[in-house]
Amino acid sequence: MKAKSQPSVDKPGTKWRKDLLYWAVVEHYRTWLNFDGIELKQVAANKGILDGATVRRVAKEYKVNRGIRKAPVKGGPDKYANAIARGISKLAKNNWPTSLAARSTTCAAFALAVKKNYTNGEQVSAVTKLVWFVRPKGWTLFDSHVSIALGLKAQSTAGTMTAYYSELTRRRFGWYAAQINKTLKGRGFPMLFGERVIDKFLWFVGAGRVTTKQQKQTCQYFLECLPYATRRRLKAAANAVANAHAKGLLK
Fold first, then answer.
1. How far apart are CA 20 and CA 4, in angstroms?
2. What pLDDT, on the 0 to 100 scale, is given for residue 7?
3. By C-alpha distance, which of 151, 131, 149 is closest to 141?
4. 38-90: per-residue pLDDT in tens?
5. Summary count for the chain: helices (H), strands (E)
6. Is 173 within 8 Å of 142 (Cβ atoms)?
7. Kind and range of the H or E run holding 104
8. Which of 1, 5, 110 is nearest to 50 (CA)?
9. Contact 168/249 with Cβ under 8 angstroms?
10. Both ends of the chain: CA-CA distance in Å?
């Protein structure tokens, strides 16, 4: 992971921040309809418990499936995904701490515990993603893009991950997420998460100009596919979030 001398998210000016936060709302809604919302409802219907099939779907969607060992027999019982599902369900439901720092430590410890028997390497990023589908409120995902957005120096993956959540705490992530949630709710999108809007915003910041441009184009085409009334409401909500929260977000 390449270290940066100055966190990209701290660059002066608000125009670029408003633009990225606007598209972060659209991207969150796009992925909500396409995947996240569906999986969250399935987990909720399963009383907040992950199963192996959900673990595989999430891992494939978020491009971390290669980090989980393959089932011993193709088409047979998936003991690796099933074990991870049980473990994450247990830690996220029964022993989930209140602070981001403690939560990140819990995720790192779990990733280390399953490394020997169930994963290929220490899959801390995958754990943070899977946990979100059990405990979405007040939580967000970790990957290299979002850590770059906050200018974190390269170290071990677990070390960078815990540093990322500590930095989010310092920058009042929970407060900003709550404020964005209020705006989304007021604009008719109570099902969306300010936490994930911030996640998308940071992902755009850290992904690089070319990748971000391509993803924004995908979002534009997505908007054009929506019914007119929905498109109009979503654009209004995205503008409201960008105008109200971009200037000071995570400063």
1. 20
2. 53
3. 131
4. 999 999 999 999 999 999 999 999 999 999 999 887 777 899 999 999 999 99
5. 12, 0
6. no
7. helix 100-115
8. 110
9. no
10. 23
pTM metric for this prediction: 0.93
Give which of 160, 195, 178, 149 is closest to 40, Cα–Cα: 195
Give me the pLDDT at residue 10, please. 73
Distance (Å, whole) CA 246 – CA 111: 34
Query: In the numeric block, which tokens belong to residue 72?
Result: 């011993």
Q: Which residues of 135-174 are buried (b: 16+ CB within 10 A; e: fewer)?
A: ebebbbbbbbbbbbbbbbeeeebbebbbbbbbbbeebebb
pLDDT in tens, 184-229: 999 999 999 999 999 999 999 999 899 999 999 999 999 999 999 9
- The total of other beta-carbon atoms located within 10 Å of residue 61's CB is 15
Alpha-carbon torsion, ordered 173, 174, 179, 180, to 10 deg? 60
Per-residue HEC secondary structure of 15-68 comes to HHHHHHHHHHHHHHHHHHHHHHHHHHHHHHHCCCCCCHHHHHHHHHHCCCHHHE
**Who contacts 26 (Cβ-Cβ below 8 Å, separation ≥6)?**
219, 222, 223, 234, 235, 238
Contact partners, residue 96, CB within 8 Å, separation at least 6:
103, 106, 135
